[in-house]
Amino acid sequence: MGVAVTKERFATMKEFPEFMKHPTNRIATSSQSTPGVEGYVFDGADGSQMAFWTCRETTSSAPHVHEFDEYMTVVEGCYTLIVGEERIPIRAGEEYFIPRGVLHGGEVVAGTRTIHAFGGHRADRVVKSSNPLE
Fold first, then answer.
1. Domain 27-118: CATH architecture, name and number where available
2. What is the DSSP string of 104-120?
3. How many CB atoms neighbour CB 112 within 10 A?
4. 47, 27 in Cβ contact below 8 A?
5. How far apart are CA 109 and CA 86, in angstroms?
6. 126: which DSSP letter?
C-alpha cells in the first residue's frame, strides 16, 4: 500500500521535520556563532558535517573563520552574509560557497532556516553520544 501524494504534503514548512531535531544531535550553544538559534548536526564518515539552523530572533553572527570549506543554502527567510565590506543577501532557495580561511559573519532575520555543509568538524553537540565507536 503506497502513500498518497497530495498537495498538502508539499505545503510550505515552518520548521524542520521532528526526525531532524533529535536531542542527541542538538548543537551546543558554545558551538554557535549566532545567538538565539536552534541547530542540529549530522556527521559524515569523512569528518564533514551538515547543520540545520532555525533562527528565532533577528540578530548577527559573529565574524569567524573555518579551516574547511562551507556551503550554505537558505530554506526560509534571509541571511545576509558579510565578507569584508561586502554584504550578500541570501534568500530562500539561494545558496553560497565560503572557501576555507575566509573571515565571514552575517545578519539573520527571525524565522530564517538554513542548511550548511562543512568540509570538517564545525559543531559540538549538547548531549554526547553513548556510542563507543564515536
1. Sandwich (2.60)
2. EEEEE-TT-EEEEEESS
3. 24
4. no
5. 18
6. S
Domain boundaries, the chain: 27-118
Gyration radius (Cα) of the chain, Å: 16
Position 72, amino acid = M
How much of the chain exceeds pLDDT 90, in percent? 61
Per-residue confidence (pLDDT) for residue 85, from 0 to 100: 93
Is residue 61 within 8 Å of residue 46, measured between CB atoms? Answer: no
Question: Which backbone phi and psi does 97 adopt, to 5 degrees?
Answer: -115, 130
| pTM score | 0.82
Rounded average pLDDT over 39-48: 94
- CB contact at 8 A, 78 and 91: yes
